[in-house]
Write a structure and sequence with these properties.
This protein is of the alpha/beta class and 306 residues long. The protein contains 7 helices and 15 strands. The relative contact order is 0.20.
Length: 306
């Protein structure tokens, strides 16, 4: 789960002065280590099926679909590439002695524009939506539109990943992710740095690379949760802390997107000279994205593309 508590604490730290940051640097902090708990990890060809719940435009759907396709290492993007960011997840598999290839494949897409379960969903209903498109050794991605409220959305999370049995009575499970479009509900919490933060100094937001604050914010959360799902799909993979609120591959590096980042500052990013948009990864079809730092098991530190 992407914890809003972590985000709030993180952004509040921006009030620290430069002297405070220098002082903190003098204290040698032990390296963060995500422990492997000997459970299953996802690997090989990994289909991601999408459930579009509520209204999404064709342009919004293409932003997400292009991102997922860009994760495949067979794609040829400019450097820094989305696929290079994704390669870091393979280091987790190698460290665990598992097959170290994870090829994301864009699976089937289901549209529920009429919101068959209503526009106020419980988390159990997210699981039920995901189950309709479940696949073994795959991930179901449930995306809810900006006018759909989900239990806990904005109050405790921007999205989540979980698992459930493939069918009643079966031990085999499938993994699923939910992410909501926060454009009108809580962009200051779930679409930062493309919107002014709810807490901390109100610095100007960055320009979203695909011109859509809500969906570009969703990409950050989708990326975070995908990394967490592959490396900790069933709650016994890589994480630190309690299993009920784990620090995972991306959530261990909150608010970090480029070098020299610090609380409230996303880091030194690439800038599109024409649009003024900030990004750190190139995808297919000329797409650009902002992707979160991932904890690197080789260095026990957070790694960014730029």
């Amino acid at each position: 789960m992407i914890s809003l508590i972590k985000v709030v604490v993180f952004l509040s730290l921006v009030q620290m002065c430069l002297g405070g940051r220098r002082l903190a640097a003098l204290v040698q902090q032990p390296p963060l280590v995500l422990t492997y708990h000997k459970g299953a990890l996802l690997h090989g060809a990994l289909p991601v099926n999408i459930v579009w719940y509520g209204h999404f435009t064709a342009a919004q759907r293409s932003i997400v679909a292009d991102f997922l396709t860009s994760l495949n290492q067979q794609t040829k993007e400019k450097s820094p590439a989305v696929s290079s960011w994704w390669e870091l997840t393979e280091a987790y598999l190698a460290r665990a002695g598992r097959p170290s290839t994870v090829s994301v494949l864009l699976g089937k897409q289901v549209t529920d524009e009429e919101c068959s379960m209503g526009k106020s969903l419980k988390r159990t209903q997210i699981r039920d939506l995901a189950a309709k498109s479940a696949a073994p050794n795959g991930i179901t991605l449930v995306l809810t539109s900006k006018d759909v409220a989900v239990e806990g959305f904005c109050m405790s999370s921007c999205g989540l990943h979980d698992s459930a049995p493939l069918a009643k009575g079966l031990k085999e499970k499938f993994a699923y992710i939910w992410v909501g479009n926060s454009e009108t509900q809580c962009p200051g919490q779930c679409a930062w740095p493309f919107h002014q933060p709810l807490y901390g100094p109100q610095t100007p937001p960055l320009v979203a690379p695909n011109g859509d604050v809500g969906v570009d914010g969703m990409i950050i959360n989708i990326a975070s949760l995908l990394a967490g799902t592959v490396t900790n799909p069933f709650g016994n993979g890589y994480f630190q802390g309690p299993a009920t609120a784990p620090m995972e591959a991306a959530s261990s590096c909150p608010g970090m997107y480029g070098k020299n980042s610090y609380p409230g500052y996303a880091g030194d990013l690439l800038l599109d000279s024409a649009s003024g948009a900030s990004y750190n990864a190139n995808g297919i079809n000329g797409r650009r994205y902002l992707l979160p730092a991932l904890w690197n098991p080789k260095t026990s530190s957070c790694s960014t593309l730029v």
